[in-house]
Amino acid sequence: MRLAEAGWHTTIAARSAEGLEQAVARARDAGLELHPQQVDVTDEDSVRALFDRVAADGPLHLCVNNAGANSSRLLVKPARGDRPLQRYPLADWENTLRLCLTGVFLTGREAAAAMVEAGVPGTIVQISSAARGGAYGQSGYSAAKSGVDALTRTWALELAGHGIRVVGVAPGVISSEALHHHCERDPRHADYMERLRERIPARRWAEVREIADAVLFAAENSYLTGTTLEVDGGGLPDRV
Ligand SMILES: NC(=O)c1ccc[n+]([C@@H]2O[C@H](COP(=O)([O-])OP(=O)(O)OC[C@H]3O[C@@H](n4cnc5c(N)ncnc54)[C@H](OP(=O)(O)O)[C@@H]3O)[C@@H](O)[C@H]2O)c1
């Protein structure tokens, strides 16, 4: 919505047709137009088909790699009472890397291919995270986001000659509907998040718009490439 507001012809893509419809309706209520497309970023054929359909609207100038989800698990959780020692499940690790890193690889690769083929300059913006330097209980997520930063730097080097910039945006915790619902459903989580918030230098979460503004800045600042903008209120604590 922030991109559309700034005048970009904007496609939004996700798996759920219903979710897309809701987003389009919300934008329409705000006087904005979004063009919905279904995609699963973890599926190579689905991503290639998305970029083929988007090309029908004209050359691609910007791709924001946003799809991602956090998963919180300790590497090992010691045995307690009758419960045996627990290991970080391999399936969680693989699913997180598949969505948060392979998904970015596939969409970034197809965006670059579309821009190079069309011979137009463009920008790829990748949503990283303040967790990317390593974060307590987040082996898969922090490793994936660290990988996203590595792709940002690598692709900036490889694509600069084609006039393509690649920029990361690394949010701290965002004050999203999902966060509020989770906290309402689970008082223990709400308590944890409150303690976390108190230890962020800015003492508050990011507003969604503050992250969207950073994406817009990354999209429009023509000398910015190969770097990740930290939009995290001063950073997250190592542990709460
Ligand atoms: N929220 C935070 O506090 C926070 C902090 C730092 C970084 N981030 C990063 O910001 C990005 C967005 O996070 P968010 O909190 O806004 O998450 P969100 O509300 O869960 O939204 C994620 C979006 O990705 C889509 N998606 C998920 N899996 C997909 C797939 N396989 N293929 C295509 N689309 C898929 C979802 O739609 P469907 O389910 O319909 O596919 C949804 O639209 C993520 O990269 C996240 O890591 C978030």
TrEMBL record:
One of its GO terms (biological process) is fatty acid elongation. GO terms for molecular function: oxidoreductase activity, acting on the CH-OH group of donors, NAD or NADP as acceptor. Pfam families: adh_short_C2. InterPro entries: NAD(P)-bd_dom_sf, Sc_DH/Rdtase_CS, SDR_fam. Belongs to the short-chain dehydrogenases/reductases (SDR) family. This is SDR family oxidoreductase. It comes from Streptomyces lonarensis.
